[in-house]
Amino acid sequence: MSANPPLLSQRFRGYFPVVIDVETAGFNAGTDALLELAAVTVKMDEDGILHPDQTFHYHIDPFEGSILEPAALEFNGIDPNCALRGAIEESEAMKDLCKGIRKAQKNADCQRSVIVAHNATFDQSFVNAAIERCNIKRTPFHPFVSFDTTSLAGLALGQTVLVKACRAAGIAFDQNEAHSALYDAQKTTELFCYMVNRYKALGGWPVEDKE
Q1: Known catalytic residue: 179?
Q2: pTM of whole model > 0.85?
């Protein structure tokens, strides 16, 4: 065992990465319903290798007055009115998520959580809008900083589509499972860990002290 094991809190300047994926009823975070949300945290082992850790997953009832775009529902295959979804109120989901992430962030000795997502602006906008609607004051998430695996995959793998990036990294991807927030979040986490670990293996981390 290393005498001074690497710490996740030192890898991303105190940020705690949380991989997020959402399924929605449209593209407008302010008006369209958030229907499913999954989040996966990461942990670092004694060799400085990143691994998936905790998973949070919620099916969510459309908030009052929200828009349900038929094209979006057809795309993701979600029936918002299906009782078998086991959906809960948006406020319940977001409060539970924020509570769980704050605890994980504290355990990792990090100061703030950063959303990691594929095309991160989209997922971050829906998370931020839901947090604001639910009047949650103690959000663990940075309001605008994010790590976009689309950009990282373009750099590291020459691919920007999630399925193609995963396959380029040797990560199995079943397209029949795609557009499930849980599955996409899990695969995005695998991809993020692969790219961070690969960069380390190639000698890119830790950065040499130039002074």
Answers
A1: yes
A2: yes
